[in-house]
Amino acid sequence: MDGVSFVGVIHDNAPMPTHEEITAQLTGPGSAFEVHQEQVLGQPMLVFKNRRRSLFEVLAASSVHGDKPYIVEGDRQISYVENLQQVARLADVFRSQYGIQRGDRVAILAENQPEWITAFWATLSIGGIVTALNAWWTEDEVHYALGLTTPKLLIADRKRLDRLKEQPELPTICIESDFAALLEKSSATELPTTEIDEDDPALILFTSGTTGRPRGAVNTHRGICGFVQCNMLGGLRGIMLAAQAGTPPDPNPPALCALVTSPLFHMSGLFTGAVMMLVVGAKTVWRRGRFDPKDVLRLIESERVTTWAALGSMAPRVLSHPDLERYDLSSLRNLGSGGAPTSPALQERMRKVAPNGAAAISLGYGSSETVTAVSMIGGQELVEHPTSVGKIQPTHEVQIRSDAGQVLAEGEQGEIFVRSPYNMLQYWGDAEATERAIDSARWLATGDIGQIRSGRLYINSRARDMILRAAENIYPVEIEQRLEAHPQVNEAAVIGIDHPELGQEVKAVVVPEIGAKVGADELSAWVGETLAAYKIPVHWQLQPDPLPRNAAGKVLKNVLRGETENRFIED
After folding, report:
1. Between the CA atoms of 110, 114, 119 and 120, what dihedral angle is there, to the nearest 10 degrees?
2. 168 assigned to some structural domain
3. Nearest one of 152, 154, 94, 96 to 123, comparing CA atoms
4. ∠ at Cα 62 (57, 68), nearest 5°?
5. For position 345, what pLDDT does the model report?
6. Is 23 helix (H, G, I), strand (E, B) or coil?
7. Considering just the CA atoms, what is the radius of gyration of the chain in Å?
8. Distance from first CA to last CA of the chain, Å, rounded?
9. Is the four-CA dihedral 401, 405, 408, 412 of positive or negative sign?
10. What CATH number should be reported for the domain holding residue 179?
11. Cβ proximity of 476 and 497 under 8 Å
12. Which of 309, 308, 303 is nearest to 69 (CA)?
């Protein structure tokens, strides 16, 4: 954040600057995050004046971090300069041996590991497009995605290749047996020179596929660079807000160290773990295999982790672990959560494990289609507004629309539409779905139901998850958050089930805390203390097993409704 500093002096009797005033200060003329208007894909939009124009520029700039560790995985450690050397050699091999050129797709099918990240940067540095395949997919889903995106090359680990009875008919690099030898085939020492446009495709990131076939959201260089810049702006604003609230920045902060447990084929793992942490020169710690809460605790202690972004059920599984108190978590400075709504109860549990409490927790709202976080919230603001996902980020526009397409006033509920320079270009190979999602003015229909109150965005549900009972709309998230506030509940999901007269009734699937003895009657009374009678679940399912989730951390409600089996393979 070179060149960014606090501006002005706050006198003892002067009013504290607001969120909006600090944002205006950070984005005004001459500031590091100055915003002005440009044409983006034929539409006038607000953009950051000072910005990286491609991920190649982002990668090249990481040379300033020198010998600092970039990737740590088990006993392996790769510095920033070593990463650049490996990327240069692999990019050279991609070009010379496999003929990868600007616009060609390179598919990656593997668990989190250094080779995934090297292949990602190598592909982007020559103008190629990374096709990030979900490592939890079945063979049928893998072949579907390969057929859709027609990559020129596949990079996969042995476990995923062994899962495919029918091997793909395209050049394939097996990470375990081929990758190291490929790096030895080149003596390149410099990154390649490639013409890359801001709005060139960089990545095909597949939607979670909770219903139907997953779609490939095409993310641009501009979009992923924007993800980084918007998050850095939000982080700096959070520091300034915390300082004015009495929590000044640590004068001797520990070295940045991020534990990444989200998969690289998800925006949380890839954009935050591999890209944003490279920009700030952090050490990133990765682990392989099935999520293990005890191993996460071990790594936080042994690696002195300062940042961890949990996904889906990861945070509650760690915070409920019986060995939690045995580990030293004092290094933690920042905790985030994504993939699924974070209830106020879970937020409070997260604050208790981080030394700087409220200032440590931050949340955002975004998707594979919006690319960036459309809104962000953290610190004291999140304490005061725990059910909000925050105020709209600079360079983003949000509208709440009715079913008829009318823009609704503040406080009214409807579908959330987003426009920004960072929205996906399209769904790869699906013009019909793209036309439904993005209109001619580049407004994106998110499929989420929400409202804006006092400038803050609130998410109520996915449109398809909303329950309609006797003409009353019921948003599962408010019931789920109430259930998770119960001291003996670990996690909960609410779905609608058919009823011949009412249309639908409410069903709750609850996972109690280990050893808890809680029943449906107690939970019904608990929900009824704060919510209307028609929102109290009529049907209850209490189970010891965690809720079924996909790799993005979203609860698979179609599995809970019995519409399909859980096909995701977590290994």
Report:
1. 90
2. yes
3. 94
4. 170
5. 81
6. helix
7. 23
8. 38
9. negative
10. 3.40.50.980
11. no
12. 303
Asked whether the predicted pLDDT for residue 569 surpasses 80, the reply is no
What does the pLDDT look like over 23-51, one tens digit per residue?
Answer: 999 999 999 999 999 999 999 999 999 99
Cα–Cα dist 270/377, whole Å: 21
Tokens of 372: 């960036």
d(CA 263, CA 255) in angstroms, rounded, equals: 24
42, with CB counted inside 10 A (0-12, 13-18, 19+), is exposed
Secondary element (H or E) of residue 229: helix 221-244
Phi then psi for 336, rounded to 5 degrees?
-130, 170
Helices (H), 114-206: 114-125, 139-149, 158-163, 175-184
Greatest Cα-to-Cα distance within the chain, rounded to the nearest angstrom: 72
- What one-character-per-residue DSSP string does 315-382 give? HHHHHT-TTGGGS--TT--EEEEESS---HHHHHHHHHHSTTGGGGEEEEEE-TTT-SEEEEEEHHHH
**Distance (Å, whole) CA 295 – CA 64:** 32
> What is the span of the domain harbouring residue 494?
474-560
DSSP H or E segment with residue 397? strand 397-401
| Dist. CA 267–CA 366, nearest whole Å | 9
Question: Domains in the chain: how many in total?
Answer: 2
The residue among 150, 170, 196 that closes a domain is 196
Q: Is residue 247 part of a domain?
A: no
Report the distance separating Cα 445 and Cα 259, nearest Å: 33
Helix 80-98 to helix 175-184 angle, to the nearest 10 degrees? 90
Question: Which token pair is 445?
Answer: 């229909």
- Which residue matches tokens 């060149």? 3
Q: Does residue 89 lie in a domain region? A: yes
Question: Per-residue pLDDT tens for 300-347?
Answer: 999 999 999 987 778 888 888 899 999 999 899 888 877 666 778 888
Q: Positive or negative, the Cα torsion across 443, 446, 450, 455?
A: negative
Q: Which residues pair with 495 in a beta bridge?
A: 507
* CATH value at residue 514: 3.30.300.30
Average pLDDT over residues 195-218: 86
Q: Which of 166, 196, 226 is the last residue of a domain?
A: 196
CA–CA distance, 492 with 541 (Å, rounded to integer): 10
In a domain, 424, yes or no: no
- C-beta contacts of 170-178 below 8 A and 24+ residues apart: 170/146, 171/98, 175/110, 175/113, 175/115
Cβ atoms of residues 125 and 191 within 8 Å: yes
Q: How confident is the model at residue 121 (pLDDT cuts 50, 70, 90)?
A: very high
